[in-house]
């Protein structure tokens, strides 16, 4: 069911755990050579204390059938990012077929801010959300584009969120995610003449360890907020590997350039490509009746598969969120 990516070279930033780890494994099981980055290579470092490490991700990728090269990188340091791409350029003779901009440094700060309004949160929350995130995505894309445009092929996937459309975790988070969407869109314009695609990818609610903590932290006192409740409820959550399998299928799409510059939704791509997660499931899109109706009528959750997967306009979803009690 996964695409054949043998002979392809991919880079997944922030792959020591969570969604990045799942993406890297999904590309590995499709046969790709996967470079992965993270801020440490073993679990003795406190940065990786929540789960996993680069070495564990590397082992999982190789077990899935891929080839992996783990490179410790602090994505807040431009020089380390530059050195990473110089290494790939040298080792792969200039070949880089896929960059997945996934590294993100804001989760712990979002948890500690516990849903405070922006004027009560520490000012450092902005940089925590958007330095290793929006800014590091731009830097990585800068160096990736130098390689891809030379070969006139490639794909840059920027992991974003529906939080760029609707208020979920506050101003710093939402502004950064909205900017990621614009980053992908504007890069697509300049990359198109070189046959290089750029898209923004919205996973659904991905059940990573850190996201469990973030959802639980934001639930307290905000149970009636539609945006928060949809996350904290843990209904229809996606797995990290599911996202990776969708990206693998996307890479193999002969009509990829038709998606250039657009926001793509993981669940909808999965339905189109026939992708399922490791449990054989294909979660519903966050803008489908199958996901939205059970949010208002919880008794329908056990029968969600019987609900048509019709798409609801974004403006209507946004209106419902804005009319719900505020965080």
Q: Can you give a write-up of this model?
A:
By secondary structure, the protein is of the alpha/beta class. It contains 12 helices and 7 strands. A 7-stranded parallel sheet has the order 3-2-1-4-5-6-7, sandwiched between helices. Helix 9 (240-251) packs across helix 10. The termini are far apart. Mean pLDDT is 88; it is low at 43-51. It holds the Pfam family adh_short. It comes from Phormidium tenue FACHB-1050.
Helix coverage percent of residues?
40-55%
- The counted number of beta strands is 7
Q: Number of helical segments?
A: 12
Mean pLDDT: 88
Strand order of the largest sheet: 3-2-1-4-5-6-7
Elements, N to C (H/E): EHEHEHEHHEHEHHHEHHH
Largest sheet: 7 strands, parallel
- The geometry reads as globular
> Beta-strand percentage?
5-15%
Spans where pLDDT lies below 50 across 5 or more residues: 43-51
* Cα separation of the termini: 41 Å
Going by helix content, strand content and strand pairing, the class is alpha/beta
Cα-atom radius of gyration: 19 Å
InterPro entries: NAD(P)-bd_dom_sf (IPR036291), SDR_fam (IPR002347)
Pfam family, one: adh_short
Protein name: SDR family NAD(P)-dependent oxidoreductase
Organism: Phormidium tenue FACHB-1050
């Amino acid at each position: 069911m996964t695409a054949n990516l043998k002979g392809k070279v991919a880079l997944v930033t922030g792959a020591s755990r969570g969604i990045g780890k799942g993406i890297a494994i999904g590309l590995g099981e499709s046969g790709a050579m996967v470079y992965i980055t993270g801020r440490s290579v073993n679990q003795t470092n406190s940065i990786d204390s929540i789960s996993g490490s680069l070495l564990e991700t590397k082992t999982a990728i190789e077990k899935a059938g891929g080839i992996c090269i783990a490179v410790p990188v602090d994505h807040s340091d431009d020089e380390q990012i530059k050195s990473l791409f110089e290494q790939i350029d040298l080792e792969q003779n200039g070949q880089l077929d896929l960059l997945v901009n996934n590294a993100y440094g804001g989760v712990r700060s979002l948890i500690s801010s516990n849903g405070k309004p922006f004027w009560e949160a520490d000012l450092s929350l902005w940089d925590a959300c958007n330095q290793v995130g929006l800014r590091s995505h731009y830097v990585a894309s800068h160096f990736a584009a130098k390689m891809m445009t030379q070969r006139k092929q490639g794909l840059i996937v920027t992991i974003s969120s529906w939080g760029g459309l609707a208020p979920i975790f506050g101003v710093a988070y939402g502004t950064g995610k909205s900017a990621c969407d614009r980053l992908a869109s504007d890069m697509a314009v300049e990359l198109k003449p070189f046959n290089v695609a750029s898209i923004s990818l919205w996973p659904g609610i991905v059940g990573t360890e850190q996201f469990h903590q973030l959802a639980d932290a934001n639930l307290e006192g905000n149970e009636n907020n539609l945006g928060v409740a949809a996350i904290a409820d843990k209904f229809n959550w996606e797995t990290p590997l599911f996202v990776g399998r969708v990206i693998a299928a996307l890479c193999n799409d002969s009509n990829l350039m038709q998606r250039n510059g657009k926001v793509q939704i993981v669940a909808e791509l999965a339905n189109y490509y026939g992708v399922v997660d490791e449990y054989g499931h294909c979660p519903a899109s966050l803008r489908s009746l199958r996901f939205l109706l059970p949010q208002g009528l919880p008794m329908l959750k056990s029968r969600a598969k019987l609900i048509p997967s019709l798409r609801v306009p974004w403006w209507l979803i946004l209106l419902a969120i804005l009319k719900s009690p505020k965080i």
